[in-house]
Design brief:
Its EC number is 1.13.11.15. By secondary structure, the protein is of the alpha/beta class. The protein has helices spanning 15-18, 30-45, 96-108, 125-134, 154-171, 204-219, 222-235, 243-252, and strands at 3-10, 50-60, 64-67, 71-76, 88-93, 113-116, 141-149, 175-181, 262-270, 273-280. It has a single domain (3-280), classed as Protocatechuate 4,5-dioxygenase, Chain B (3-Layer(aba) Sandwich).
């Protein structure tokens, strides 16, 4: 029925918004912004009508949650970094129907999930930052899914990602892109040292592990990466424990996925963290995929 047209791991660093304004950081995130614009261009060419974002800035403590309100709008200031993102306006249409289909399929698979369409839930900046550069004209409907899952298992998050794909392909009549919005390593600069790490990764160990991970992705060696994912998320402070990445891989076939990624924005450091924009080619699911 429906089509999963594009999948990607994307950055949402707040310095992207900061880089729009005159000052010492003006233009510093042009590469990341241009990467978002390139992903948007491809989504439009593929006829995408809805973008689903696994957002690691939405923390939940139980179950999987889907924000599928009929519309979103307001003015956003980050409570985490209010000096980076402040008074940012946004307005996007939602997609309640697809959100409920995702929850239905996940629950049928035994992954407890809830879709929230009659809600005052707002969007977090893991969704708002990329939508600013891809969806300013409200071309796409938007669904945001909690990707900061403190008490969840990465394998279960992979199964949730598989449920997203099944909902799209088996029950939805439309074309969808799915983004894992989060970093690679995610150790921020220590308090008082932020300026010196504006364009750096916190520690050489973290950067070297990140770069090796990108090599595995470019080689399509998902079996190795999935095997190391729990330890990588733990030892390198993966953002949201990297549940967004687990969901993305579940969507694509987990450790049986075999496609090499296409890096759109090369790996870069930002406030101590490791960042990238990379497209994960959508390929047919391996037979009997269960993660």
């Amino acid at each position: 029925m429906g089509t999963l047209a594009l999948a990607a791991k994307i950055t949402h660093v707040p310095s992207m918004y900061l880089s729009e304004f005159p000052g010492p950081n003006f233009g510093c995130r042009d590469a990341a912004i241009n990467g978002h614009k390139e992903i948007d261009r491809r989504c439009r060419a593929l006829g995408v009508d809805t973008i689903v974002v696994f957002d690691v800035h939405w923390q939940v403590n139980s179950e999987y949650h889907i924000n599928c309100g009929p519309k979103f709008g307001g003015t956003y200031t980050s409570n985490e970094l209010p000096h980076f993102i402040k008074n940012m306006p946004y307005a996007y249409p939602g997609n309640p129907a697809l959100g409920h289909l995702i929850a239905d399929v996940a629950n049928e698979m035994g992954v407890k999930s809830r879709a929230h369409s009659d809600t005052t839930l707002e969007l977090e900046y893991g969704t708002l930052v990329p939508m600013r550069y891809m969806n300013a004209d409200q071309h796409y409907k938007v669904i945001s899914i909690s990707g900061w899952c403190d008490w969840h298992d990465l394998t279960e998050s992979g199964r949730f990602g598989l449920a997203v794909r099944r909902a799209i392909e088996e029950r939805y009549e439309g074309t969808v892109a799915v983004f894992a919005s989060g970093s690679l390593s995610h150790h921020f600069a220590d308090n008082g040292r932020a300026p010196e790490f504006m364009h750096k990764v916190y520690d050489p160990f973290l950067e070297q592990v990140d770069r090796r991970v990108v090599e595995l992705w470019e080689a399509g060696d998902w079996k190795t990466f999935v095997g190391m994912l729990p330890m990588y998320a733990d030892k390198c402070w993966g953002e949201g424990d990297m549940h967004d990445t687990a969901m993305l891989l579940g969507l694509l076939g987990w450790d049986r996925y075999a496609a090499p990624v296409e890096v759109v924005t090369p790996y870069f450091g930002s406030s101590g963290t490791g960042q990238i924009n990379a497209i994960f080619p959508v390929t047919p699911l391996p037979a009997e995929t269960t993660t």
